Amino acid sequence: GGPSKCAPNECLSQYDYCGTNSSYCGEGCKGGPCTGSTTTIPPPSKCAPNECLSQYGYCGVSPAHCGKGCKGGPCTDSKTTVPPASKCAPNECLSQYGYCGVSSAHCGKGCKGGPCLSDSSNTAAPPTPATSGTVSTVFDENVFKCIFSELDSATLTKRFNGLKTAASKMKWTPADDKHEIAAFLAHVSHETDGLKTYIEYCKSQGTCNNYQNSPWCSAQAKSGKQYFGRGWLQLSYPCNYEACGKAIGLDLLSDPDLVNGSDEVAAQTGIWFWQSNELGPLAAADKFGETTNKLNVYECTGHPGHHMQAKRISTYKTVRKCYGLPESTGNLEC
Question: Against a cut of 0.70, is the pTM above it?
Answer without folding.
Answer: no
